[in-house]
Amino acid sequence: MGTELLERRAVISGVGQSAIGRRIDRSGFQLTLDAILAAIADAGLTVDDIDGLAMFPGGGKSNLPGYSAANLYEIQDALRITTTWRQGLVEGMSLPFYGAVQAVATGLARHVVVYRTVKEGSAAKKAGGRPAYGSIHPEAEGPLAWLLPIGALSPVCQIAPYAARYLYEFGVTREQIAWIPVTQRKHAALNPDAVYRDPLTVEDYLGSRMISTPICLYDCDVPVDGSTALVISASETVPDLRAPVGLEAMAGVIDGRPSWEQWEDFTRVGYATAAGMWARTDLGPEDVDVAELYDGFTIEAIWWLEALGFCKAGEAGHFVDGGERITLGGQLPLNTWGGQLSGGRLHAAFGHTAEAVRQLRGEAGERQVADAEVAVVTSAGGFEAGAALLTRWR
Amino acid sequence: MVPTEITGRGRVYSLTVNYQRWLPELEVPYVIVLVEFDEHPGVRVVGRLRGCPPEAAAIGMAVEVGFEPGPGGYAIPSFYALNR
Q1: Domain presence at residue B40
Q2: B51 assigned to some structural domain
Q3: A117 inside 8 A of chain B by CB
Q4: Which of A2, A66, A106, A375 is deepest in the core (most CB within 10 A)?
Q5: Looking at the partner chain, which of B15, B30, B43 has a beta carbon nearest the beta carbon of A164?
């Protein structure tokens, strides 16, 4: 790589999280401030150093109750800071730090706080179960017009036909993919902040109730209340920082039709994004020490294992079978914090990024991957897909 | 942009049988199918599947398009299983 890439002019300097749980008796505003103040202290900075603010999603826009639980201007007001750059996106690059990296790399800001706050645990309790799309959108419009009338009332109904086609084409079995939630639960037991920490077995998985075939209860992430904040800093500020983490490469490519039902090949998701990321680095899949792969549903982690080249198309079932390759001490420890399946749906890879930073700093406690130098983080699954390679700072 | 009329038999590209009662009056289970048409490559139509028990629904099965009444007086695309 001859010319310096944009992402090399930025570092992840801080991570912070609020209390995370099925129900946390604090407002989205309070949870957000808890996370932000923790992230700023973690970076070795003070509140007055922050001159950029970003959230996901922006505009208070919400497709499900509790999906977006804090307002950017209220947060800036509470912090009493001056910002030279702000961003809140609904449509856009799915990596949490994509815009913030551009802002600090181009000098629009020096230290940007990016946060994501959910109150989906409380919203589910209020609704008496996991809310449906239709519960807050009485009229079908936009993409929902194709979903609501036929009863595709949840993201589960959208992702399920992708999983069904994958299992059909490759002959992968539910007994094999069960090892992803089972292994991640084992990791969650080592994470005091994870929501579900009791052991889970393959038998538990196969015996759990079906939500929308082939997706069962344990294939779905768990709605929670909680906030994650990241601090993204310009690389020239590294001397001021406690423990920065490097950004080797990042990408987010949409190469097909951005539509859940028109997407060309349901078995190949994230491939263009993965290729875009690898094209920006001399590192390859064999260099990755720990993988924090988006797991809103089990099938999404499977897509990423194949798209990123950790195994070939259709071979992820074999790759995860038995759990040995994807656990601590294995070839590719996967979602070492429990992932969204057991750690909680902090969404849009905020939980995944926080964990990658802790692993690369050697601050992951009992679940630390020995000598972790390179981590891959992915966000979302489906046509909107982001991937980044993070490295230990030298 | 000109609308294209799609006729003829379709084939199920993928499907899901939904068991979760997302809304209080929702009747479950029901089958959601994504259907492709040999004569119209590059487009899929989503709908419910009728005419066979949910457990008989399968990828690759032949279906015929139909409509049924939906909310607000609109007609909703729906598919009927053939040869079952």
Answers
A1: yes
A2: yes
A3: no
A4: A375
A5: B15
Cis-peptide into A214, omega within 30 deg? yes
Nearest to B14 by CA among A133, A296, A214, A210: A214
Q: E-assigned strands of chain A?
A: 10-17, 52-55, 85-88, 111-119, 210-212, 215-216, 225-234, 245-251, 290-292, 374-379, 386-392
- Return the residue of A nearest to B30 by Cα: A151
What was the pLDDT predicted at A1?
A: 44
**Could you read off the pLDDT of B17-32 as tens digits, one per residue?**
999 998 888 899 999 9
Domains and CATH numbers, chain A: 6-130+153-392 (3.40.47.10)
Q: What is the mean pLDDT of chain A?
A: 93
In the numeric block, the tokens 């009332």 are attached to A153
Separation CA A148–CA A275 (nearest Å): 34
pLDDT digits (tens, 9 = 90+) for A37-49: 999 999 999 999 9
ipTM attached to this prediction? 0.95
d(CA A322, CA A342): 18
Give dist(CA A149, CA A133) in Å, integer.
11
Q: Which of A55-69, A203-217, B1-15, B23-37 is least confident?
A: A55-69
Q: Classify burial at B83, counting beta carbons within 10 Å of its beta carbon; exposed 0-12, middle 13-18, buried 19 or more.
A: exposed
Q: How many CB atoms lie within 10 A of CB A215?
A: 27
Q: For B22, which residue in chain A has the nearest alpha carbon?
A: A132
Asked if residue B1 is part of any domain, the answer here is no
Within an 8 Å CB–CB cutoff, is residue A212 touching chain B? yes
Residue from B4, B18, B43 to probe the interface with A (highest A Cβ count within 10 Å): B18
| Nearest-CB residue to A157 (from B16, B70, B74) | B16
Find the domain containing B48 and state its range. Answer: 10-81
Specify the number of domains making up chain B.
1
